[in-house]
Amino acid sequence: MFFKKFRKQKNAKKLLEIVIKKNNTGFIFIDITNDLGESVETIMKGSKRAIMAYGYARRAAAAALYIQGIITQKEFEYVFSIFKSLQIQTEHTVEFQEQAAEDAAIYMQTYNIMINKHVVSKIINIAINYEIPLEKLSDQELLESVYETLHREQTTIIDKTFLNSLGQVTAITGTKIEPNSRALESQEFNTKINNSYVKLSKLAKSDSQKSIRLMIIPCDGSYWSWEFELSDEELLLADEIIKQLYDDTQGWINASTFSIVDNTETEFDDPDFEEIDFSFFDKNQPS
Description:
Blueprint: H1 15-18, H2 28-38, H3 40-44, H4 48-68, H5 73-89, H6 94-109, H7 117-129, H8 139-154, E1 161-163, E2 169-171, H9 187-204, E3 212-218, E4 226-230, H10 232-248, E5 253-259
Antiparallel strand pairs: 1-2, 3-4, 3-5
């Protein structure tokens, strides 16, 4: 019996090994954005995992810049939509998305030791679900506020939320998250959640007018996610899929919705980010 040789994937470097850190604007997340942008051509020639890690890092940086008052909501939404397209182009499995998200967090932490995966997860959550301050925030003010929010919410009993049949985020009072609900080594578990992804993706691919973005995230501190753009009618259909997914994962996932912002007037028009430039922000910019 003969066996094929195992071939390593070419250019299988991780994001940290690809990006060259050049920028020093005085803003951590501008530096991350610019360094990623200047390395995008090399990244896009690399592995799917590096490409997806780029998407996670770019989205997190954009979320931080939005909270800091450096970019607009439309600009953040644009980066978010590109993240979604990268996810479609690469691989949607939980294991792959977790690896890519972890690679992104490791890369971002090289800019500041305080930037771990829990901080990144909360930054994205704040950008989507919280009131954003009107005043500009420095990096220190942003990170201190994120840590304060994490501490406050970890010491408070908060019910998990769930998307109800009206597309509203409501409290879950039933099943608790079981310790073994994340059995990623289980083929049955992978099959169930992948089937849910296929069903939701099919809904999102219709030609209907999209008004809602559905975001599915884990409840264990990871910050990988699935995003789908849906119409109001499709959201009602998606609710049944999510209810089944919630049961299949024993409460491990959380589904949230938010309105889609019209990006037609945004200054960003390059789908590969190659022309996005934040270099006009310098160390003297008011914070």
